[in-house]
Specification:
Elements: E1 2-3, E2 10-11, H1 14-20, E3 42-44, H2 73-77, H3 82-98, E4 103-105, H4 128-144, E5 148-154, E6 167-169, H5 172-179, H6 181-190, E7 194-197, E8 201-202, E9 205-206, H7 211-221, E10 227-230, H8 238-244, H9 255-267, H10 272-290, H11 305-319, E11 321-325, E12 338-341, H12 343-346, H13 366-371, E13 376-379, H14 390-403, E14 406-412, H15 431-443, E15 447-452, E16 468-471, H16 479-487, E17 501-502, E18 520-522, H17 531-537, E19 541-543, E20 554-561, E21 567-574, E22 580-582, E23 585-589, E24 601-605, E25 608-610, E26 615-621, E27 629-631, E28 636-638, E29 642-649, E30 655-663, H18 677-682, H19 686-693, H20 700-705, H21 711-714, H22 720-723, H23 727-735, H24 737-751
Parallel strand pairs: 3-4, 4-5, 5-7, 6-8, 6-18, 7-10, 12-13, 12-14, 14-15, 15-16
Antiparallel strand pairs: 1-2, 8-9, 11-16, 17-19, 20-21, 21-26, 22-25, 23-24, 23-29, 27-28, 29-30
Helix pairs in contact: 1-9, 3-4, 3-11, 4-6, 11-16, 14-15
Amino acid sequence: MTVREPQGPAVLTLEEKAALVVGAGFWQTAAIGRAGIRSITVTDGPHGLRKPRDGGDAIGIGDSVPATCFPPAAGLASSWNPTLLQRVGAAIGDEARAQNVAVVLGPGVNIKRSPLCGRNFEYFSEDPLLSGELGAAWVQGLQSRGVGASLKHFAANNQETNRMTVSAEVDERTLREIYFPAFERVVTTQEPWTVMCSYNRVNGVPASENHWLLTKVLREDWGFEGLVVSDWGAVDRRVPALEAGLDLEMPGPQRDSTEAIVAAVHSGELDEEVLDAAVARVLALVEKAARPQPASAPGSPGHHTSTAHALAREAATESIVLLRNEGSLLPLRTAQAVGVIGEFARTPRFQGAGSSQVNPTRVDTALEAISAVAPVEFAPGYAFGRGVDPAPLIAEAVAVAQRSDTVLLFVGLPEGDESEGYDREHLTLPLVHAQLIAAVAAANPRTVVILSNGGVVSLEPWHDSVPVIVESWLLGQAGGSALAALLFGSASPSGRLAESIPLRLQDTPSFLNFPGENDVVRYGEGIFVGYRYYETAEVAVRYPFGHGLSYTTFEYSAFEVARDGSRAAVTVTNTGARAGADVPQLYISAPRDRLVVPRRELKGFDKVVLEAGESRRVEFALDRRAYSHWDVRASRWVVAGGDYVVELGRSAHDIVTSATVRLAPPRPGMLTLDSRVDEFLRHPVTGPILARAAGGEGTANVLELVASMPMRRLMRFPGVGESFSRIGTLIAVANNPVVRGIASWWARVRGR
Ligand code: BGC
C-alpha cells in the first residue's frame, strides 16, 4: 500500500503494517522511521490529564505529571451544563497539548445501569440523552484544542465485576435505545478521533471481536470514520479483532499479535485489505495529531494553573446538588459559629480510584475554605483505616456540635469503598458515618450533611433526622472552596441529579440481574433503566432523576409545543430574591402502541442563569428521533401514530405543565399471509374491508379474538378460508405503492 507522509510516499512491508496496528509501548503507537511515520502518545483522562512521568512506572497511577483535576463525570453531569463541559474539555485539551499528548482516553459515556457499578463516578448518567449531550460537549471542547478523544467503553460495559470476561446479554432494542445513543450522539455530532472498545463480551462476542458492534453499528449505521482502539488488554485474538474492525491494539508491543497478522495474510486467512484499512486509520490519526493547532487563547485555563483551577472551582460549584433544605437553613450567615465535623472536610475525597486518577496541581479543602469565612471548630469524627476506635471521635464531635450554631457534617464513601475494578455490594454509608450522623443530628438540629461519593449512596435511615443534605459527589481539586462558596451563599446551587437516588437497593431495576452469574449478566430490565423504571412501575424513590434545589425559585409559563411536535418553548422566570440557575427539563410520554414504552423519557433540557425577577424564553428542538422507538422487526427507528404528551418538569417525577401532540401513524408496512390479523385490522386499506367481510359492525370483537394469529393460520379454520378467498388480491392492492401513499396521506389528514 502507498502511504503519503510528510517525507514522501513509502511502501510499507507487511511486517511494518502489522506493527502499526499494535501499540509500541504502554501509551505509544509504533513509529516507522524509514517511512517518516512517527509515534504518538495517548494517555488517560477524562476529568484531567493522567500522563505518567517519564521514567516512572508504565501504568503510572499516582505518579503522573501534575494536571488540573476537574470533577469526575458523576459531578460534572450534575451540572446539566454542556457549555461547562465543553470548557472543561478544552482546558484538558490545552494541558494535553502542552504535554505532547495526542489523544486523551475519554469520555466514558456508559450508562449507569446499577448504582453499584464501581466506576459510576466516571460515567455521566442513567439517561442516554444527558450522557450523550454532555459527552459530546466535552469532546467538542477537547478536540477544538487539536487533541483527540477516545469515546469509551463501547459497549455495554456497565459493571466492573468480571469486566474482562462477562457477557452482557442485551436485546437489540435496549442497546439501541439505552446503551448506544450516547455513543451515537458523540460519533454523529463530533467525529471523535477514536472510539475505545470495552473489555466485556456483548451477547457472547467479545467487544474487541464484535463485527456487528465495531463495523455494522459504529461505521455503517453511524458513519464513524475514526480509529477503533482496544481497551488496554481487551484483545485476545488479534486477527478476528482486526476483521471485526478493531484498528489498534493497546498496549503493545505484542509479538504474538503482529506475528499472527503476518501469518494470517500469508496463509490467506486474512485479506490484506482489512489490514490496510486499519493501517490507514492509524496513519490518519498520526497525521491529525501532527496538524498545527490553534494556540490556546491568552488567559485560557490551559495557559495558567490558576485559571484552570478557577474553572475547576466553577465546575465543582455547578456539580453540587442541594437535595434538601428544610426551613431554608442554607445559605449560612458568616457570623455564626460553625462546627465542621468529618475527616473529609480536612482530607477531601475529590476523585475516584483507578486509571483516571489525576495528580492535582493543588487541592482546596473545605475546612480551610470555611475557616476563611467563618469562626470554625473542627472535629474529625472518624478516621480512615481500620482499628481506630470511633467512640472517642464521635464523643468529641458531639461536644463540638453542641457548642456550634450550625454543624457542617462531612460523610461519604472512603476511597476503597468504590473503585474501577470492582463493584459495591450495597448502597449504605460506612457504619461509623451513619453513627456519627445520628449522634451529631441528636446534638444539634441545625445539621447540614455534606456527602462525598462517586456512586449513589442511600440516605436511609437518617434522611429525616437532618434538615439539609448536600450531594457533592467527587468535586475535583477545587471542591473545598466551591463548597464553602455555596454553603455561605456566594454561589447558588444549580446542580440536578443525573441519576435517581432509590430508597432501597431492592428497588433498583437491575437488582435481580446484577452483576449476573457464570460470567453472564442479563439485562432483564430492558429499556427500564433508572427513572424509566421508577416512573413506569410507580416505585417511590428518595429523590428522582433531575431533582435539585436552589436558593431562589423559578416559575414556568406560556408552555407551547408546535403542532407537528418539532419545537417546544417555555418562559422561565426567577421569582426569588437572588440570582440563580434553573434546569427546565422536557420529557415525552409516548402512546403505548405495539411497543412497551416508559412512562416518560428525557428529550431536552437547558441550563438558564437568571437574575432575580428576570425571565427568559427557552426553546427546545425536537426531531423525529425524539418520538421514535427502535423497531426490532423493521430494524429501524419508527414513530408510532397517536397522542404524545410533551411534558415540562423540574425532575422526572415533578411535571409542571404539558401539551399533547398528535402524530400520524407511519406509512403502513407491507402485508403478507404471515402478517398477524391485527396488522390487517390496523391497516387503513384492509382494516375496514375485513371488518365488513367478517360481518360488519359488532364482529370486530370476533376478529380481535384472533388478532394475534398470522393470517395464514386463520385461513385454515373451517369457513374462514372461503370468506377470505380474495385475500391474495387484497394484499396486492394494500401493498401497491400508490395505494399505500394515499392511505398514509388519509391517515395523516384524519389524525389532524
Ligand atoms: C480502562 C480504560 C483506560 C485504560 C488505560 C483500562 O483498564 O478500562 O478506561 O483508559 O485502562 O489506562
